[in-house]
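User: Run a structure prediction on this.
Assistant: Running it now.
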Amino acid sequence: PQVPPNRHQNLSTERPTSNPAIFVVIVLGWKRHASLRRLLASLTASDYMGDAVDLDIKIDGGGGVDWERSIAVAREFEWGFGRKRVLVSEQNKGLAHAWFTGWTPPSDEHRAMFLEDDIVVSPVWYRWVKLMYQTYGDLPYVAGVSLQHQTLRATDGQHDPIKNNHEPFGYNLLGTWGFSPHPKHWRAFLAVDRAKLDPHVPGLVTSSWFKSVKQGSMWTQYFIWFAEQHNLYTVHLNPGDGVALAANFREKGEHFRWTLGPDFELVTRWNPAWDDPPKTLRLYGWDCKEVAVLCG
């Protein structure tokens, strides 16, 4: 049975503190209710350092029992760190639309973290993202911060993890498995007229992938084009072999034809060495080769 229209109304609960939240977690879900529950549990177990953090759970339209269960999971979930909203779409609009409409930064001081529902996060993810913005957020070429353990070489699609002594680095390619876009650049990116844009970037395998998928479904190619145009780099951390600040369960959906399981184990505790990140941010191009060391 379909969910009655009155159940589609947006649900919002107020935060239990008077301190305004400048950080919002945006969860993108659809029919994978068990995955959604797993992600939300990992968010509850995270350390927010006493900060107010809001939560938006966006459920794409589609109908069916699994869809109803996802809505129920979202509505029943209790969030104790800030305001919670559940936003349910009447129609199936796709993952790209969810990213494009998920967040409009109110100011350059606001922050967001996008998480698709097959992701789980480390308990220390927020602490690390906050530190990265404090350290590198004012650099004009920082496109945002990713939780993804970088492995992909964008020029040919080969496995090529960047070796940087397990310290933060900037890479031309964004990582969507936990992505916090810089508000200044995200606002400019959303203003691009994508209807008239060919986001092809010569020399990148992602351009070929974009042509092989349903038109408009691979939103990341537009951001790749944007990063190429503005010489932007996303801050990453490869914390060690086999571990990451976020893991992707690589479940059947828009990205994978069948379920593969988690790509990495999660970092379970804060590394004291991260308390003092380098004042210089090493930058790596699409080919995973270092292009510069710029002062922070």
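The chain is about 25% helix and 20% strand.
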